[in-house]
Amino acid sequence: MAYGDYDGPNKPDKGHENGSCNRTRCQAAPARWYNHGSYSWYCDSCRNQIEFDRVNLRDWQQNYQPRLKHPMFETREMMDARKEVA
Ligand SMILES: [Zn+2]
Hints:
By secondary structure, the protein is α+β, with helices and mostly antiparallel strands. The chain has one domain. The protein has four helices and three strands; from the N terminus they run ββαααβα. It has helices at 44-51, 54-63, 65-68, 76-85, and strands spanning 33-35, 40-42, 73-74. A three-stranded antiparallel β-sheet has the order 2-1-3. Strand 1 (33-35) and strand 2 (40-42) form a beta hairpin. The longest helix is centred in the C-terminal third of the chain and has 10 residues, at 54-63. The protein is globular and about 40 Å long. The mean pLDDT is 94. The site of zinc ion (ZN) has 9 residues, from helix 1.
């Protein structure tokens, strides 16, 4: 399953950690990437498409990264590792 393959109703765990991807036309599991922009969880392939989109990436690096000091998407492990450093 990839973005655009899904055309059904919203799953109850859509956008939740380890649930279904937050993108309505995807909703693949497991959603293990947290998007700090939308506060929802995404699957591996949507994370790649969204985070490394040229416009999104530049926007994040210019407007958010300097203040937040982390990438747009993180796994739970990445966020936990950051907390230990802080
Ligand atoms: Zn997805």
